[in-house]
Amino acid sequence: MIQTETVTIPGQVHGYPQVAFGGYVAGLLARRVGTGTTRVDFRRAVPVGTTLLLPAAEPGHAVLTDRDGTLLVQAGPGVLDLSAPPAPSWSAAQRATAAAIASPKRQVTDCFGCGVECADGHGLRLFTWPVPDRPIVAGAWIPDSGLADAQGELPPEIIWSALDCPGGFAAWVFQDMALGAVTAALTARVRRPVFAGERYLVHGWAIRSAGRKHTVGVAVSTPGGELCALAEALWVAPRDAAAQPRPARRHPVAEVSGPQVHAG
């Protein structure tokens, strides 16, 4: 008999309150899918601090359900036909990160991906911001050792987490995505290991949008130009977004905590 695996997402691994961080959940399933490009589709919100099930799936696939068997997330082989725009320099990314942290418009949160209130090792502390004169958001990132395994390598859950928030920021900045949007799908490929204590550039950009749907790209690379991971994400705005008052033009990233897993 095949044993169904259980998993509980730690309470601090959230974006919106009590909702598990989308990139982390995606990486959790991608680890079980195996090597290559993986597509993860979110069907319902994943709660933190609750026992969830990883039932057996066909080879190359993975699913996450609640204890009643309701499908929350599914993953399988994906296709990534995407080229990343050139990453900024390390100094430009550092300036973008500094601007993100210093801006009075940026909400202070404990989002696992982009929350400044997360302690080192308990969140990515990955702060992206628009790069002047370029259609990208970017950040300079040195992963904390608390995010890595005993050899200092980041697990898939953390690498995929780094591919989440920057895409949401790009959609908010360049596509006027409504507040409260969520990650509906994330397709990614990890090309090389990522290690704690080393310098990485993370940048996101808009690809296309139609109605409530926004497609964005995110890349993680070394300052020397080696691509470590690449992703395309589909974000979906709330159904009532059209009824929400739109603020005057300013960085919409100032008013949100970051992307979280939810059904679109």
Automatic annotation (TrEMBL):
Enzyme Commission (EC) number = 3.1.2.-
UniProt entry keywords in alphabetical sequence: Hydrolase
Top-rank lineage group of the source organism = Bacteria
Q: Where is this region: Disordered?
A: 243-264
- Enzyme kind, highest EC tier: hydrolase
Q: Could you state a single Gene Ontology molecular function term?
A: hydrolase activity
> Is Cell cycle one of the keywords UniProt gives this record?
no
| Entry protein name | PaaI family thioesterase
The organism's taxonomy opens as: Bacteria, Bacillati, Actinomycetota, Actinomycetes, Mycobacteriales
